[in-house]
Amino acid sequence: MSEPLPAAEPDGPAVPDPASPLRDADADVLPTVAVGEGTDDLVIQGHTYDGIREYDNPMPGWWVGLFWACVLFAPVYMLGIHVFDWIDTYEEDFAEAGQRLEEVRAVYAATGPSFKTDEGALREYADDPAFAAAGAATFASTCATCHGTQGEGLVGPNLTDAYWVHGNTPSDIYRVISEGVLDKGMPAWDASLSEEEQAQAMAYVLSLQGTDPPNPKAPEGDLAL
What we know:
Elements: E1 43-49, E2 52-55, H1 61-82, H2 90-111, H3 119-126, H4 129-142, H5 144-147, E3 163-164, H6 170-179, H7 195-207, E4 222-223
Antiparallel strand pairs: 1-2, 3-4
Helix pairs in contact: 4-7, 6-7
């Protein structure tokens, strides 16, 4: 059996620990380390490729523990998802999430606002003939006294021409119906009509555009381009 190699001189090349289990005890020569004197890294004997040496650098303990935990968990997971049904599949999770979403939508529909009056919704109502038809009765009972039965204008302005006093967008007309114009004698209808009824009246007013009723009142306000 060969004698242990002496420690390297202070200025000489560093060598691996002769007692390392990586060392071949029958070898006469140990590979030298390439990281300097006093290093704790050990060269794995015989692992030299094109001058590149392989060192014995173990992985951190936490990483090795995590690796083995994954290895041990893998069969549990496979049995749980494919045999014993302990773990939900992706399809089951997706279906469950969809069901929860539908439940949230149902709760919102039951407790949230029942009728939208934002600008986008009002534009949709204005383009819906059914809304305009439903608003005819509301117009006859609340608006015809001042605007005429056909919107030709009496005390209030003519609603069939292209001139508007307070704007001609669905939002403008809805606001006038809801808030009124008190200094002009236009009452606010938000306390008497529901939001849906006000939106229907708005749609009906817009449907009167260009109808050319008899005895129209002279234009008032600004021409809508």
